[in-house]
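User: Show me a protein chain along with its predicted structure.
Assistant: Here is one chain, sequence first, then structure tokens.
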Amino acid sequence: MAKALITWGGWDGHEPDKVAAIFRAMLEGAGMTVTVTDSLAPFDDAEGLRGYDLIVPVWTMSTITRQQAINVSEAVARGTGLAGCHGGMCDAFRDQVLWQFITGANWVAHPGGDGVRYTVQITDTAHELVAGINDFTVETEQYYLHVDPANHVLATTQFPTVAWYHSPNGPVDMPVAWTRAWGEGRVYYNALGHKANVIADGPAHEMLRRGLLWAAAGKALADPARAEALVSPGNHF
């Protein structure tokens, strides 16, 4: 049976305990064995992390050590999936650039704060993670992210919605959801989820459910030997 680790904490405003509960229900509904903790101690156990099919971080801001970031990196590179949402994954552990490299982005702003009304546009309509999901409107934070161009983008939103200092740059399509590879591991991110109710149901919930399961499914397909072949001296910053 596939195993998942959900670890939650950090800034309380993102309701990490409630978001973790939503993720737990998704994964247990798919038959996975789920460990939920409000501690980052599992990141100290390099071998233990490699035993999971999926790691789901729900940690806005906070800090981890360089070694903890490396332990997650090595587990994902050898096939363990990594998936999450909003600040719980891409506004986590700001001082660890390796974390940002693994996840594919880092948060820099949400112009207008909470309650901005905007459209999420599905851009890769044929992809299994968004097939059959139409464009939809949300009222929540609209994340402006610095994004890795290697990400496979599934959905976007357009800036600017709210006028701010970035507005003179003109319109830009900002990724909302994407997949990427980290060695042999699958990584999925969705920028929605400022509050638990944003992802509790509807298209955002379905996108995340598919994304988490997709990331976990990669473990069975991974070849750790291929990951080893990618390692070069000084690869960990």
